[in-house]
Every structure is written in C-alpha cells, then in structure tokens.
Write a structure and sequence with these properties.
Layout: E1 15-16, E2 27-29, E3 31-34, E4 47-49, E5 52-54, E6 67-74, E7 77-79, E8 87-99, E9 107-119, E10 127-134, E11 137-139, E12 147-154, E13 157-162, E14 167-172, E15 178-183, E16 191-192, H1 195-209
Parallel strand pairs: 1-3, 2-4, 3-5, 4-6, 5-6, 6-8, 7-8, 8-9, 9-10, 9-11, 10-12, 11-13, 12-14, 13-15, 14-16
C-alpha cells in the first residue's frame, strides 16, 4: 500500500483581494480573499495560483474548468458550487461547509480535504491522485466512474457513498471513522479495509453476490 503524498503549500506574502468580483478566465496570483461574497459569480476558466480564500461564500459560484494551484481554502461555505472539470493541484481545503459541489470530471492531485462537512459531493468520472480526506464528513458522495489512486480516508465519516464503476489503486479506507457504501461495493478491488469494516460491509457484500444470510 503506497501512501498518499500530501501537498506542501507555502504561500508567499499575499496581497488583499480588492476586485469587483470574479471574471471568466481571470488570473489571480498571490491574493487573499477574506470573507468575500462570491455567490453567483462566474469565474469559469479562472486560474488561482498561491492564493488563500478564507471564510468566503460560494453559493452557485461558477468555477468550471478553473485551475487552482498551490492554494489554501479555509472556512468556505455554499451550496451548488460548480467546479466541474477543474484542476486542483497542491491544495488544502479546510473546514468547509458545502453542499452539492460539482467536481465531476475534475482532476485532483496532492489535495487534502480536512475537517468540515460536504453534502452530495459529485465526483463522477473525476481523477484523484494523492488525495487525503481527513476528519471530515462526506454525506452521499458520488464517486461513480472515478479513478482513485493513493487516496486515504482518515478519521472521516463516509455516509452512503456511490462507487459505481469506480476504479481504485492503493486506496486506504482502514482509518475511516465510518464507512457506509450505498452502491458499488463490488468496486473495492484495489482498496484496503480493516477487519471490522469487513464485518460491517458483510451484508452489502452478501447481497451483491446474491447470498442470502
């Protein structure tokens, strides 16, 4: 089992963001967004490099095809944030309170999602490599058709996960505080679970195999 490589984000001296709002294909470099209300804004295709977003509102914010690199997001909140087909590399997402986040088709590499709660996370057909979910709550996350490589779940609760058609390589689920798989339990090949998790999943595995207990 190969462990995930965590990001090592070292932010430079940041300048306060003083813009009038996000712009499509905007270029944001070494900026701090502090408690900005970005709800409903369109930043599709934007690039964030060496940025910090702290306490910002992202309700229905459009960030499709965005590139987020070497950045730290803390205390974000919002419903319906659209990050579909975006790229996140060397990113820390800390204490987020989000719902219905669209990350389908996204590429995540060296990303840590720590603390907070994310409801109905859509990661269908996303590519995750060196990603750590730590101390967070994921309610009905959808990993359908996603590719997970060196992904760890540490002290987090995973409730009602959909793994349909997902593929896994070196995925470590042993330290998950709660592991509930609603669909796709047959896609756990390539993952490692603990003996206690195996017992918890036994009824679902038996049903998948057509075994009556």
């Amino acid at each position: 089992m190969k462990g995930a490589r965590r990001p090592e984000v070292r932010l430079p001296q940041l300048e306060p963001y003083r813009g009038a709002g996000l712009e499509p294909d905007g270029d944001y470099d070494s900026l701090e967004f502090l408690e900005e209300d970005l709800a409903g804004q369109d930043g599709a295709g934007a690039r964030f490099l060496d940025c910090a977003l702290r306490g910002c509102a992202l309700d229905e914010t459009r960030l499709r095809h965005a590139r987020i690199l070497d950045s730290v997001f803390t205390g974000l909140r919002g419903v319906g944030t659209d990050l579909a087909e975006s790229t996140l590399r060397d990113v820390e997402l800390v204490d987020a309170r989000l719902g219905g986040v669209q990350l389908h088709g996204a590429v995540l590499e060296r990303v840590v999602i720590r603390g907070g709660k994310i409801d109905y996370l859509n990661m269908r057909k996303a590519k995750l490599k060196d990603v750590v979910f730590e101390g967070c709550v994921l309610v009905e996350p959808d990993f359908g058709g996603a590719r997970l490589e060196r992904v760890e779940f540490v002290d987090c609760a995973v409730k009602g996960a959909d793994l349909s058609a997902a593929t896994m390589t070196d995925v470590d689920l042993r330290k998950a505080a709660e592991l509930d798989i609603a669909r796709g339990v047959d896609r756990l090949a390539g993952a490692v679970i603990s003996p206690s998790q195996l017992l918890d999943l036994a009824p679902v595995l038996a049903a998948e195999m057509g075994v009556r207990v």
